[in-house]
Design goal:
- The chain is mainly α and 1034 residues long.
- It has 28 helices and 11 strands.
- Strands 5-4-6-7 form a 4-stranded parallel beta sheet, sandwiched between helices. A 3-stranded parallel beta sheet has the order 8-9-10, sandwiched between helices. Strands 1-2 form a two-stranded antiparallel ribbon.
- Helix 1 packs across helix 3 and helix 3 packs across helix 5.
- It is globular.
- The N and C termini lie far apart (96 Å).
- This is 4Fe-4S ferredoxin-type domain-containing protein.
- InterPro entries: 4Fe4S_Fe-S-bd, 4Fe4S_Fe_S_CS, Cys_rich_dom, HdrC_iron-sulfur_subunit, Helical_ferredxn.
Length: 1034
C-alpha cells in the first residue's frame, strides 16, 4: 500500500538531486583527508595485533571509557554518539519517507523492537545534544579565557554541528509523531511521540515534509563538512574510530610512560648509521611526523579537555595542548597541496622537489600550486611568531619549551591524541639539528655528558648519603650473589640534600625489613630522563647504553624476572622500567613506595600508628599518570597513622609540580610558577605535611612552601617523602637500641666503614661518628698524605675511582685556623635567588698542630706511582659530518702543575689512622705535565649554545691507577689548612696497621664474572674503550 502523490514524488526528486553534489563533496573531502594523512612518515607498529586493538576500540566506543572521565559530558555525548550511529538508519529512511509516507525498512522497520528503539534514539539525541549545548555555554570564553576549556576553539563550527544534530533528533521525533497521528501504532513504542502527535494534524504530506527537513539538514552537513576537512568537531565522528584503533599502546593504555622512539622512514633510527641529510631527526617539518600523528591532528575535536588540565596553560604560559594540535592540523592541510604536488625543501629552505633538469626550481609547476600553500611551505615548524604569516613559525619556541611532559593532556584526551610524543619529536629536531634550545639546557647537557649527572657533581660523592647510617650499605664490587634488589639511588638521591634523606630512609627501612640489597655507588650514571625529554636523544641513548651495560653486568646470568631494581625517583623508574627495554635492557623495576607497601603488608615492617598531623599527598606525574601507581603511597600514609586530605586535583588529574620535561633545570619567565600554583592548592587543605614520592616534586614543593612562608603563609608546613613518614612510624615500634636487619656481612660503605678500627699512629686518628665532622688538622701532618693503594669501590673498565689524587709536595702546616675558600659557583649556574640543589656550606678547618708522626718511606708504597692514562678511543655517536653537537665542548686541560694539599676534596673525611710520608721521601709523586685528555662524551661538533664562558679545567697532578682527577669546584671548597686525603676503603698499604684487615674491594681476576651473553643494546654503536659520560679514561 502506498501514499505516493505528485507532491511527494516532486519532493523526493528534489531531495535526490540535491543529495548528489552533497555526497560528492563529502567523499572528495574524505579522499583529500586520506591523501594528506598519507604524507606522513610510515609507521608499521600501529596495525597489529588486531584482536586486542579491536577489543579496545569496542570498549572505548561502547562503554565510553575515555569520555566518562567527565561524567556529565560523558553520558550526554554517549546519547548523541549512539543517536548518530544508529540514527543514521532513520536519516537514510527519509529518502523513502519523502516519496511514500508509509515507507519503512524491510523486515525490521515495522517491528515493535525497531519502533521502540527509534523512539529512544530520537529522545536521547535531543536530550544529549541539549545538555552539550548547555555545557558549552556555561564554559564559554566569555568567562576569563584561561578558565574556559573552549578558549581558542571554533564556535561557529561547534554551533553548526550542534544545530544539525538537534534538527536530526527532532526530525526523528516529529516524523514518528506525524506517522502516529496519521496511521496510529503501538502506544508503548510511541510512549513519548504519541503526546506530540496530539498537536499535529492527520496528514500524510506532513510526514514527507518532516522527512525532507530531516534529510536536508543532513545534506547541508555533508556539504559543509566535505568543504572544511579541518572541522574536527565533525570529522571526529569518523576519524576517532581509526585513531583509537591505531593508538600507540595495543593493551589499551594511553601514550604515556616510555617516550616514542626516534623514528625515520618507519623504522627506529639506528644512530650509528644515521645521516642528518636523509634521516628525520625528530620533526622539523610537518611531513616529518608519522601518518598517525597527522591522523591525531585531524581527529582533534577541540573539546579543550587537555587545555583544562595543562599546568602550563593554567599558570599563564603560552602552551595549550589543544591549540598546539590545532596549529599543526591547520598547517598540515594548508601545506598539503604543495606536498601532494611533489614539493620539498632541504634544510636550507631551497626547493629540491619540483626542479627542472638543471636542478633549478620548476616555476611552471610551482605556479600551479595555490599561493597560500607555497607560503605555508616556507614557514618553519618552530620559530618566533611576530605576526608575519609568511615568516612566522607554526609553533613558538615559548610554547614548545613550556611543556612539563606531565601527560595530563594525553590522559584526558577522549580520542587518544599523543601530544607528548609530538612535542618530544619537535624538541629533538630543535636540539639535534638546529641546536636551538633554552640556554639553561646547555649546562644540563654539559653536566650529563661530562659528569654523568645533572648537578655536575663528582662521581666520588655518590655515596655521601650513607654518612650517618648505623649500618653498612652493601656496594656492588663484582659479585651480586644472592642479593635480591639493586637499589638505584639516582642523581637526586645521591646529591640533593633533601632527596638524600629519603634515600637514607629507604635504606634504613630495607635494612630493618631484612631485604638484601646493593647499590652501585660510583657505577651509577644519570638515566637520561631529562636529556630525552629535552630532545637530546643522542645524549639519552649514550647514558642509557652505559647504564644497561652496567646493570647487565650486575645481573649477569639471572633471568629477567629476577633482575630486580628498586628506585626512589619516578623518573628513574620510568626510564629504566619503560624506556630501557627499547635498547635491550629488561628489568623488574619497583618504586620504593610499592616495595615498602608490600613489606608492610607482609608484616616485615610494622608501623606503629599514632595520631599525626593531617597530610595531603601530591601525585608525582611519572609515578601516577605515567605509571598508574596511586594506591601504594596512600596506603603507606595511612599505615603511618596520618589522616589523608586530598587536594581537589589528585590522582590522574593531579597538577604537575613543574619539574618534568627538563623544566627542573629551566627558569620560568612567564606567568605564575607551576610549583607555587601546586603549593597554593596544597596549603588550601590546611594540613601540616605535604607528602610525595618523588625527589623532584619534593624540591619544587619545598621551594613553593618557602616562597609562601616568606609571605607569612603556610607556617609549620613540611614537605616530606612517604618513606620518611613510614620510617618514623616503624621506629616507634622498635625497642630502643635494637636494629633489625640483614644478617649478611655487609659491604664497605656506611657508618662502620667510615669508622674502621686501626692501630693508633703516633698521632692517633679519631674514628668517624654517625654525623662526620671535619677532622682536626692535628690528626694529619702538614705533609702530603701517603698514596692509598687500590681501594674504594674498585669499579671495572672505564670507571674512575672517586677522590684519588697523586701525592703532592709537602706544604708547611699553618699554626692558626685557615679560613675556607668560598666554594666555586657550581651546579646549574642559576642567577639571582635560584637555589642550587644539594649545595652545602664548607666546614671551617680545625687548627693544625706541629706534631708530626713517624712516616714510612715512599718506597713502601710502590702502587702509588702514577701511571699515564691511556687516551680513550673516539667515542660518542660516530655520526656523519652534518650532525651538530647539542651543548658546548669542554675546554682542553691546561698543563698540569704539582698538586697542593689544599686541593684535597673538602667533602672527604679521614677515616683510618694514616701514617703519611714526608714529601721528600716520595720522589715518584712529583707532578709531571699531564697529557690533554682524549676527546670524550658525544664527540659532536660545537654548534650548540652554552650559557656563559666555558671554564677551563684546572691543572691536575698525574693520576694513580683508577684514580679520578679532583674537580676544581670541589678543590676550592677545601680549607688550605686541612689537607684531608680522599676517603679510602682500607688501602692495601695499611693492612699491616689494622686489627682486622678489610677485605679488598677489588675482585680478583678469578672472581670477575664474564660479560653477559645478552645481546648488546642497540642505539649508539660506540667503540670499545670510548669515554662514557661521567667516567674517566682507562
Amino acid at each position: 500500500m502506498s501514499d505516493v502523490t505528485p507532491v511527494t514524488l516532486t519532493l523526493g526528486t528534489i531531495a535526490a538531486v540535491v543529495s548528489i553534489p552533497a555526497w560528492i563533496i563529502f567523499w572528495s573531502g574524505a579522499w583529500r583527508m586520506v591523501q594528506t594523512i598519507r604524507l606522513g612518515q610510515p609507521d608499521g607498529t600501529r596495525l597489529f595485533p588486531v584482536l586486542p586493538r579491536l577489543k579496545q576500540l569496542t570498549v572505548e566506543f561502547a562503554a565510553h571509557t575515555r569520555m566518562n572521565k567527565f561524567r556529565s559530558v560523558g553520558w550526554a555525548h554517549w546519547l548523541v554518539m549512539v543517536g548518530f550511529m544508529l540514527g543514521s538508519a532513520a536519516w537514510l529512511a527519509a529518502y523513502g519517507e519523502i516519496y511514500n509516507p508509509k515507507f519503512h525498512w524491510p523486515l525490521i522497520g515495522n517491528t515493535f523492537a525497531w519502533s521502540f528503539l527509534m523512539e529512544l534514539l530520537g529522545i536521547g539525541t535531543v536530550v544529549g545534544i541539549t545538555a552539550l549545548i548547555i555545557i558549552r555555554q556555561r564554559n564559554h570564553p566569555r568567562r576569563p579565557d584561561r578558565q574556559s576549556r573552549f578558549s581558542g576553539s571554533s564556535f561557529w563550527q561547534a554551533y553548526f554541528v550542534e544545530a544539525v544534530v538537534l534538527v536530526e533528533g527532532l526530525g526523528v521525533i516529529f516524523v514518528r509523531a506525524a506517522k502516529y497521528s496519521t496511521y496510529g501504532g503501538s502506544d508503548v513504542a510511541h510512549f513519548f511521540t504519541r503526546w506530540v502527535a496530539e498537536i499535529l494534524p492527520s496528514d500524510p504530506l506532513l510526514i514527507s515534509i518532516f522527512a525532507m527537513v530531516k534529510l536536508f539538514s543532513g545534506m547541508i552537513w555533508l556539504l559543509i563538512v566535505g568543504r572544511y576537512i579541518t572541522m574536527g568537531v565533525a570529522w571526529h565522528r569518523f576519524s576517532a574510530f581509526f585513531n583509537i584503533y591505531f593508538k600507540r599502546e595495543d593493551d589499551g593504555g594511553v601514550a604515556l610512560g616510555a617516550a616514542k622512539p626516534m623514528m625515520s622512514g618507519g623504522k627506529v633510527l639506528e644512530l650509528e648509521e644515521a645521516d642528518p641529510e636523509t634521516d628525520a631527526f625528530g620533526a622539523g617539518n610537518i611531513e616529518d611526523f608519522s601518518w598517525k600523528a597527522l591522523l591525531d591532528f585531524t581527529t582533534c575535536t577541540e573539546c579543550g579537555r587537555c587545555q583544562s588540565q595543562c599546568p602550563a596553560w593554567n599558570t599563564g604560559k603560552p602552551l595549550s595542548p589543544k591549540l598546539l594540535i590545532l596549529s599543526l592540523r591547520d598547517h598540515t592541510y594548508a601545506k598539503a597541496p604543495y606536498l601532494l604536488a611533489g614539493g620539498k625543501k632541504d634544510m636550507a629552505g631551497e626547493e629540491v622537489g619540483l626542479v627542472d633538469a638543471d636542478g633549478n626550481p620548476d616555476e611552471a609547476k610551482l605556479a600551479k600550486i595555490p599561493e597560500a600553500a607555497r607560503i605555508e611551505a616556507g614557514r618553519p615548524l618552530v620559530g618566533e611568531t611576530t605576526g608575519d604569516i609568511a615568516t612566522d613559525g607554526i609553533i613558538d619556541p615559548e610554547v614548545l619549551w613550556s611543556c612539563t611532559m606531565c601527560g595530563a593532556c594525553v590522559e584526558q584526551c577522549p580520542v587518544d591524541i599523543e601530544h607528548v610524543d609530538h612535542i618530544i619529536d619537535m624538541r629533538r629536531y630543535q636540539v639535534l639539528i638546529e641546536s636551538a634550545f633554552p640556554s639553561e639546557l646547555a649546562g644540563l647537557f654539559k653536566n650529563l655528558e661530562v659528569k654523568g649527572n645533572p648537578w655536575g657533581q663528582n662521581a666520588q660523592d655518590r655515596l655521601k648519603w650513607t654518612e650517618g647510617l648505623d649500618f653498612d650499605v652493601p656496594v656492588y664490587e663484582g659479585e651480586f650473589g644472592d642479593t635480591e634488589y639493586l637499589f638505584w639511588v639516582g642523581c637526586a638521591g645521591a646529591y640533593e640534600d633533601r632527596a638524600k634523606r629519603t634515600t637514607r630512609a629507604v635504606a634504613e627501612l630495607l635494612h630493618i625489613a631484612g631485604v638484601e640489597f646493593m647499590v652501585l655507588g660510583t657505577g651509577e650514571t644519570c638515566t637520561g630522563d631529562s636529556a630525552r625529554r629535552a630532545g637530546n636523544e643522542l645524549l639519552y641513548q649514550t647514558l642509557a647504553q652505559q647504564n644497561i651495560e652496567t646493570i647487565d653486568e650486575v645481573f649477569d646470568g639471572r633471568p629477567e624476572k629476577q633482575r630486580k631494581i628498586v628506585v626512589t625517583c619516578p623518573h628513574c623508574y620510568n626510564a629504566i622500567g619503560n624506556e630501557y627495554p627499547q635498547l635491550g635492557g629488561n628489568y623488574e623495576v619497583v618504586h620504593h613506595t610499592q616495595l615498602l607497601n608490600r613489606l608492610v603488608r607482609d608484616k616485615r615492617l610494622i608501623p606503629v600508628a599514632e595520631p599525626a598531623d593531617d597530610t595531603t599527598y601530591h601525585d608525582p606525574c611519572y609515578l601516577g599518570r605515567h605509571n598508574k601507581i596511586y594506591e601504594a603511597p596512600r596506603e603507606l600514609i595511612g599505615a603511618a597513622g596520618a589522616k589523608l586530605t586530598e587536594m581537589p586535583r589528585h590522582g590522574e588529574r593531579s597538577l604537575c609540580c613543574g619539574a618534568g620535561g627538563a623544566r627542573m633545570w629551566m627558569e620560568e619567565h612567564l606567568g605564575k610558577r607551576v610549583n607555587v600554583e601546586r603549593t597554593d592548592e596544597a596549603l588550601d587543605t590546611n594540613t601540616k605535611k605535604i607528602a610525595t614520592g618523588c625527589p623532584f616534586c619534593r624540591v619544587m614543593l619545598s621551594d613553593g612552601v618557602t616562597a609562601r612562608q616568606d609571605e607569612g603563609k603556610g607556617e609549620g608546613v613540611e614537605v616530606i617523602d612517604v618513606a620518611m613518614m613510614l620510617l618514623d612510624s616503624v621506629k616507634r615500634g622498635l625497642p630502643e637500641g635494637v636494629t633489625v636487619g640483614s644478617k649478611r656481612s655487609p659491604a664497605r660503605v656506611g657508618a662502620t666503614a667510615t669508622a674502621t678500627a686501626t692501630k693508633p699512629a703516633p698521632a692517633a686518628a679519631k674514628t668517624a661518628t654517625a654525623e662526620p665532622k671535619a677532622e682536626p688538622a692535628a690528626d694529619k701532618p702538614a705533609a702530603s698524605p701517603k698514596a692509598p693503594a687500590k681501594g674504594g669501590l674498585q669499579m671495572k673498565g672505564a670507571a674512575k675511582r672517586p677522590g684519588a689524587k697523586a701525592a703532592a709536595p709537602a706544604a708547611d702546616a699553618p699554626t692558626a685556623d685557615a679560613p675556607a675558600k668560598a666554594p666555586a659557583k657550581g651546579g646549574l649556574q642559576m642567577k639571582g635567588a635560584a637555589k642550587r640543589p644539594g649545595a652545602q656550606a664548607t666546614a671551617p678547618a680545625a687548627p693544625a698542630t706541629t706534631e708530626e708522626p713517624t712516616a714510612k718511606p715512599a718506597e713502601s708504597a710502590p702502587k702509588s706511582e702514577a701511571a699515564p692514562a691511556k687516551a680513550p678511543a673516539k667515542g660518542g655517536l660516530q655520526m656523519k659530518a652534518a650532525a651538530k653537537r647539542p651543548g658546548a665542548k669542554a675546554a682542553p686541560a691546561a698543563e698540569a702543575k704539582p698538586a697542593t694539599a689544599a686541593e684535597a676534596p673538602a667533602a672527604t673525611e679521614s677515616t683510618t689512622a694514616d701514617t703519611p710520608k714526608p714529601a721528600e721521601s716520595a720522589p715518584k709523586s712529583e707532578a709531571a705535565p699531564a697529557k690533554a685528555p682524549a676527546k670524550g662524551g658525544l664527540q659532536m661538533k660545537t654548534a650548540a649554545k652554552r650559557p656563559g664562558a666555558a671554564a677551563t679545567q684546572k691543572p691536575a697532578a698525574p693520576e694513580k691507577p683508577a684514580a679520578e682527577k679532583a674537580e676544581p669546584a670541589q678543590q676550592e671548597t677545601t680549607p688550605s689548612a686541612s689537607p684531608a686525603p680522599a676517603k679510602p676503603a682500607e688501602p692495601e698499604t695499611e693492612k699491616a696497621a689494622t686489627d682486622a684487615p678489610a677485605k679488598s674491594t677489588e675482585p680478583s681476576d678469578a672472581d670477575t664474572k664474564p660479560a653477559s651473553d645478552a645481546p648488546k643494546p642497540k642505539g649508539l654503536g660506540m667503540k670499545p674503550g670510548a669515554k662514557r659520560p661521567g667516567q674517566g679514561a682507562q
